[in-house]
Design a protein that fits this description.
single chain; 404 residues; alpha/beta; Rossmann fold; 6-stranded mixed beta sheet; 4-stranded parallel beta sheet; 41% helix; globular; binds pyridoxal-5'-phosphate
Length: 404
């Protein structure tokens, strides 16, 4: 039995391609060629050399000794924060831009919430000289001014999505609408393991470089390619998918996913999809999402803009249903504290999304021999304003965090 996608594009009962008629040709075209194109030696060579020389891979696997001393076990950090543009998202956009070129597409569209995926897409479009249009909710455009500026600097056009709550799901709807209207010349770069088949599998495949490297890095450092645990935060689920890809069928490796509880699971301001969600269809795939009884999408909330998506990828929905993974959650406050703790203990300022994963370390009761890898999905530069607002850094200037 495998936890990977089947030939029909399903993970158990989740996934598939539930799309309007008008999108069928574009999605079907992609589905019929993606595996062959990606497997071509010329594609692999170009992908690998860009990951190495442009992105800066392999990203280090770092044994965080101070963090390990505090929580027990041997805690390794997979440093996706050191990638060009500061997160794992670039792995996927590099892969998809190479695919778009082979499909002879001239125009690239993307959706973005916090702007991280928009920046990663604008970056690869600049690199390849392709036109780039990024849809972004008007609310997010106001909240994420530095990333909007980055995208513009890189030559992308940022189009405000003015419907609904004017956030990520609305931007996604606008991007889908654009794709329907421009099926011939346009490739849609989705930013996570969501959307109609083949996107979840394709994005997971591009992100799988994370666990591919973990295997040989762990072998080199510990003599064993398997960790006991892998820990990752989940928005749509792409950094987690990449970190578990080559381990998911090996049930000796425990997988812990962490969702954003926002102001608390039952506060009405949360993005803990697996707890609050139910089965339904969103953005072209069957999965678990936050919705009302009538199927209206419930607005998710998290202080970290990268985690407030109302669904999760179909792969993760299946992993949760089959109990292959354990899902925990962390509130805004717990994530903020974890960000400060990693900064003070290891000299690494993590993204607020990643900090949700770090926030549950204390709940795992690690034994001394346990090896755990945290996917450090991104760096915290983009979150500095939030950290300044919430952490009272002046008062904490000379304090050490607990336990040190
Ligand atoms: C976008 C983002 C996430 C969440 O997206 P996934 O698809 O779940 O990985 C997590 N961490 C960082 C740093 C991000 O930018």
């Amino acid at each position: 039995m495998s936890y990977h996608v089947n030939k029909e594009g399903f993970y158990g009962e989740y996934g598939g391609a539930f799309i309007p008629e008008m999108l069928y040709a574009s999605v079907e075209n992609l589905r019929s060629v993606y595996l062959d194109l990606i497997a071509e030696p010329a594609f692999q060579n170009e992908f690998k050399s860009l990951l190495k020389d442009y992105v800066g891979r392999p990203s280090p696997l770092y044994l965080a000794q101070n963090l390990s001393n505090k929580y027990g076990g041997q805690i390794y950090l997979k440093r996706e924060d050191l990638n060009h543009t500061g997160a794992h998202k670039i792995n996927n956009t590099i892969g998809q831009i190479l695919l778009a070129k082979r499909l002879k597409k001239k125009r690239i569209i993307a959706e973005t919430g916090a702007g991280q995926h928009g920046v990663a897409t604008a970056t690869v479009c600049a690199l390849m000289g392709l036109e780039c249009i990024v849809y972004m909710g008007s609310t997010d455009i106001k909240r994420q001014a530095p990333n909007v500026a980055r995208m513009k600097m890189l030559g992308a056009k940022v189009v405000p999505a003015t419907s609904g709550s004017q956030t990520l799901k609305d931007a996604t709807n606008e991007a889908i609408r654009d794709w329907i209207n421009n099926p011939k010349d346009t490739h849609y770069i989705i930013g996570s393991v969501v959307g109609p088949h083949p996107y979840p599998d394709m994005v997971a495949l591009f992100q799988s470089v994370i666990s591919e490297e973990m295997k040989w890095q762990l072998k080199e450092q510990t003599g064993d390619e398997n960790p006991n645990y892998i820990l990752a935060c989940v928005g749509g689920g792409s950094n987690a998918a990449g970190a578990i890809y080559h381990y998911v069928d090996n049930t000796d490796v425990e997988i812990v996913l962490v969702e954003a509880a926002g102001k608390g699971i039952n506060s009405g301001h949360s993005a803990a999809t697996s707890v609050l969600g139910s089965k339904g269809i969103i953005h072209g795939s069957k999965t678990i999402l936050m919705q009302t009884k009538d199927g209206q999408i419930v607005e998710p909330y998290s202080l970290s803009a990268g985690l407030d998506y109302p669904g999760i990828g179909p792969m993760h929905a299946h992993l949760i249903d089959t109990k292959r993974v354990q899902v925990l959650n962390a509130t805004d406050q717990q994530a903020l504290e974890a960000a400060l703790e990693l900064s003070r203990l290891e000299g690494i300022i993590p993204a607020l999304e990643t900090s949700h994963a770090l926030a549950v370390l204390g709940q795992l009761s690690l034994k001394k021999k346990d090896r755990l890898v945290v996917c450090l999905s991104g760096r915290g530069d983009k979150d500095l304003a939030t950290y300044i607002d919430y952490l009272n850094l002046d008062d904490k200037a000379h304090n050490k965090t607990d336990g040190k």
